[in-house]
Amino acid sequence: MIARAVFPLLLALIAFAVPAQAEQSEAQRAARWSDLQHAIFGSRLVEDAGDLVAIDAPARADDAAIVPVAIRVAETFAPQVSGLYLVIDDNPSPLAAHFVLGPLANPSEISTRVRIDDYTYLHAVAETKDGRLYATARFIKAAGGCSAPAGKDQALALERLGKMKLVVAERSGPAAPVSAKLLISHPNSSGLQMDQATRNYIPADFMQTLEVTYNDQPVFRLESDIAISEDPGFNFSFRPPDPSGPGVLKAEVFDSSQRHFTQSWPVPAAAQM
Amino acid sequence: MAHIASGYAETAQLPVTEIAPGIFVHNGVHEEASKSNEDAIANIGFIVGADAVAVVDPGGSIAEGEALRAAIRARTDRPVRYVILTHVHPDHIFGAAAFRDDRPGFVGHAKLPGALAQRGEYYLRRLHDALGETAAGSEVVPPNLLVSDRLDLDLGGRHLVLRAHHPAHTDNDLTIFDENTRTFWLADLLFVDRIPVIDGSLVGWLKELDELTAMSADQAVPGHGPASVLWPEAAASERRYLEAVARDTRAVIKDGIGIADAWRYIAQSERGRWLLFDEYHPRNVTAAYKELEWE
């Protein structure tokens, strides 16, 4: 597992904070990605993913604070994948998410919603069980997402803090993976909004880790920070070891304010064909 | 009066229409904020009583605020006692600093300070991006008179009833009812012609509309649209749009369609019925989806 030392928000802010520069040249963007690779993966070789990994995201975001992003992994390649990284090159904290996949994960598709601060490349990097790294890129036009105000209804956000919701899609058969959508009510505040009256920044308060298990076996563990949108949402799928029996899916969240939330849901057995 | 007006000779007056005796409205343009429109895109104005004046939204920039103040001073020398900030959005509040020397009560919803804390700096930066140097001097002015339910203001022979609403257009919407002329100033709880912006609660807005449309008034002032409209008839289009968004968004969530593709399936029958539809509809869908997926 990658050491948490790679993640601290402060390091990211200090090392990579860049002024807004929507008109960077391609050479500047490539240099930045090269710096980021070095910071995140050290001297490890990062290969071109070709058709093995793809990023699905709008070319232009309607709301830079809630940009849907999906990482897709080719079906034949998925069994080799042990981790997925999502990097938003020009965000103040570029490493948006690192999914460490457990034995039950079905990494063919995983999606979430992120904040994007400037016109930027997104990079998705798949890590294989034998330690190789495969990267793919996509350019996106969005700006202002990290400092954009959260919370349309602040009273509701407080009242619902830490509550989660799981929606499990109907399975086509016992062999099919279980597709699920997990929602976590959390402001995931970036700490980049200044209160004009007090001249103080509103403190960052964000989800640091999310662990999802099924019958106590890991599906995935996510390490994340402020780039994940308010009320983080994840679509993922997994393969129950015993699809004919019912199970329990559990999600545990640890946030930067040392809060801990956990919730479990029964997952019915697949219908018999 | 001449000595008062002379001090403001440099400042152009904001064009206003007297929609009812003593109620003046500037009709905002249906555009995005820009240097050329000085963010004068919302309906704003003022209400004149026997003793004092209440401003209803000081406008989208210091430039608009100053022009509004000039329009007031051209018509009366009574003091500006209140500047009502109907909600947090930049096109309504950034002219407030133009009235600071009048030392009015800056009136806002009890949740406005929190919303300004979250959003004020960001909105100011965006205003500077859109207006350039024209934005200079525009400021976030926090309210010093808060409304958590109802507040009655007396302008001298003129009684205004302010109501703080539950989350709807935003989580800090105020409306103003002028008893003398039975004028209902709804600000952005009512959009006419220009597409409504969902930035509080879609479900909440529909609920508020039930209550608002049950009230009788001789006319209403929308936050965007004509300076004066019939009430409650003018709310029909907005309700139709919001209901369509709610109905279709619930359907796509039920069908497992993701937030990225949702807008294609939602309220497309409304396209062509609203100005700035393509600019705001996808964002409304995102907001609606995020709200309704918790149901």
Secondary structure: elements and pairs:
The complex is a heterodimer of chains A (273) and B (295).
Chain A: H1 9-16, H2 26-41, E1 46-48, E2 53-56, E3 67-73, E4 81-88, E5 95-101, E6 109-114, E7 120-128, E8 133-140, H3 154-160, E9 164-168, E10 178-184, E11 194-195, E12 200-201, E13 207-214, E14 217-224, E15 233-238, E16 247-255, E17 260-267
Parallel strand pairs in A: 1-8
Antiparallel strand pairs in A: 2-3, 3-6, 4-5, 4-7, 5-14, 7-8, 9-10, 10-15, 11-12, 13-14, 13-16, 16-17
Chain B: H1 2-6, E1 17-20, E2 23-26, E3 44-48, E4 53-56, H2 62-73, E5 80-84, H3 90-93, E6 105-109, H4 112-131, E7 145-147, E8 150-154, E9 159-164, E10 174-178, E11 183-191, H5 202-213, E12 219-224, H6 236-254, H7 277-292
Parallel strand pairs in B: 4-5, 5-6, 6-7, 11-12
Antiparallel strand pairs in B: 1-2, 2-3, 3-4, 8-9, 9-10, 10-11
Helix pairs in contact in B: 5-6, 6-7
Task: Based on the model shown, name its key terms.
heterodimer, A: 273 residues, mainly beta, Immunoglobulin-like, 9-stranded mixed beta sheet, 3-stranded antiparallel beta sheet, 3 helices, 39% strand, B: 295 residues, alpha/beta, Metallo-beta-lactamase, Chain A, 7-stranded mixed beta sheet, 5-stranded mixed beta sheet, 7 helices, 12 strands, 30% helix, globular
